[in-house]
Design goal:
This protein is an all-alpha fold. The chain contains 14 helices and no strands.
Amino acid sequence: MPVAKWFVRRRALALSLASLGMGIGPIVFVPVTQLLIGGAGWRKAWIVLACISMAIIIPLGLAFLRRQPEDMGLRPDGDPEGPSDAREAARPEKVEAVWSLRQALHTRTFWLLTLSLVLAGFAQGSGIHRIPYWVEMGFDARLVSFSISTDAAGAAVMILAAGFLLERFPPRFVAAGAYMGFAGAITLMLFTTSAFHMFASTALFGLSAGTNMLCQTYLWASYYGRTFLGTIRGITFPAILLASSIGAPVAGYIYDILGSYRPAWWLVVGIYAAAILVMVSATPPRRPHLAEVDAGALRG
């Protein structure tokens, strides 16, 4: 989120570089987690992982994280401040749109984006069942853990590539492409006959996850600007997180009732298809008139 406030012109690339660790981390930690669980049990494994996370994240966050460039007397993208820049910024097409939460809530795009992300969140939440599904299919648990590392590797690669895609194509189409990849990965699971298919499915899932990870932040910043980005995006988060948390138990209940994951996977594919249609229809909102924007908001 802070990265989206620090950059405007090169926001997509900056977000992709900043998010790269989210893709690289699981490459290392998924096999490590499997080893910890096998050696010490899942309870102790989670305690060890929690301690590692706090030891890395908290000190780095306190040392380097800043909310926005204005807090340090700077401007987005590292631009210098001067008379020529002021004249350039005064041109309407050079000023990033500033939307308040109230304004955003009155746009059709806000609700379409939220609905699409909620649908995708529900579907992606069920992805946790991929591991027991593969094991049930007869694959060795350790091999499955390595395939999930392929998932993470795909995400790491695509996080970087997605930055370039978002700078060249409308973000809603890039996001819809991620959902298509998710649906393709789940469909491939349904017809798996070999370890090659399992690794191909997890790699495609990871490529889609990397793209989706970047799109979720970029879409809101691109459509509604950075000034109230935290408020606007934050208001949608409870619904998206709730949908993600429901996806896993729903897939589990379907398995318990029907004795198979296949109906759950077909449901997930259908939900991704709906998310694609909604996302593609979420065109950018009409730019608010500058006179409606509070002068204090423009100063960040």
